[in-house]
Amino acid sequence: MKAWTVLFDIDGTIMTSSHAGTNAMAQTAKELFNVDKIAPLKVHGRCDRGILTDLLNSLGVSYDQHHQEFCRRYYRNLPESLERNEGRLLPGVHALLQRLHATDNVALGLLTGNLKKAAQIKLQYVGVDHFFTFGGYGDHSPDRNVVAAQAVESAKAALQDSFCSKKVWVLGDTPNDIRCARSIEAKVVAVETGGGTSQELRAAKPDLLLPNLENCQVWIDSLSS
Ligand SMILES: [Mg+2]
CB–CB of 138/47 below 8 Å? Predict the structure, then answer.
């Protein structure tokens, strides 16, 4: 049987960290450029590549010249920021991941705007990194649709003949997650645990809209086909 590919967003879907990422970016900016405060950053549903470009532009410094050193320090600052901001799994996520991981015809991957290394740090922090073996990340493009295409390529490489482009679900918390899922012709579960309001999410027409991932038995059952 062809596998279902289930692609998870991270922030607001798997975990909440009350801006641990942006706080770690602000701390990194302070260390590197001696600025006490950074301009407010739009982060929900966006890719780190775009967020970092905006941040470095707002500081008047070149992305090409500084992003490597910035990221190196950001990765070092992130664990402490997760600790300080009480990063934690959202309701129902651990049980859902365990359940899906144990299901033969389901493969778990990531579709996240996080830089790959930052995604690993965040998932390790909340103890669920081992569930994911492939994914698309926000390192190279500010466009989430590009990340979605990368996630599909990564799933194809991992699953080979078991991959089926018509059997892909995306789980996310913002209208951008829903839009990028449509760009790869995936179905979408939207959850109201992150950056999108119920109204915004409904307007973006997900296949399923849930308050959180605690009670999704009906959806899990649908994956047995
Ligand atoms: Mg999110």
Answer: yes
Give residue 172 CA to ligand 1 midpoint distance, Å. 6
CA–centroid distance, residue 169 to ligand 1 (Å): 15
Domains, the chain, with CATH or none: 4-16+88-222 (3.40.50.1000), 20-84 (1.10.150)
* pLDDT at residue 44, rounded to an integer: 83
Q: Quick check: 42 and 175 in contact, CB under 8 A?
A: no
Ligand 1: distance of its center to the CA of 174 in Å? 6
Q: What is the pLDDT of residue 37?
A: 84
Rounded to the nearest angstrom, the distance between the alpha carbon of 149 and the centre of ligand 1 is: 17
Tell me the pLDDT band of 1, cut-offs 50, 70 and 90.
low
Residue with tokens 């950056």: 195
130-133 contact pairs (CB < 8 A, 24+): 131/97, 131/100, 131/101, 132/8, 132/108, 133/107, 133/108, 133/109, 133/158
Residue 18: the pLDDT is 74
CA of 43 to the centre of ligand 1 (A): 9
User: What is the distance, to the nearest Å, from the Cα of residue 141 to the centroid of all Cα atoms in its chain?
Assistant: 14
The single residue listed with the structure tokens 């390790």 is 124
Single-letter amino acid code for the residue at 182: R
> Of residues 83 and 195, which shows the higher confidence score?
83
**pLDDT digit string, tens, across residues 86-108:** 999 999 999 999 999 999 999 99
Global pTM reads: 0.94
The answer to whether residues 189 and 216 touch, using CB atoms and an 8 Å cutoff, is yes
Q: How many angstroms separate the CA atoms of 64 and 194, rounded?
A: 31
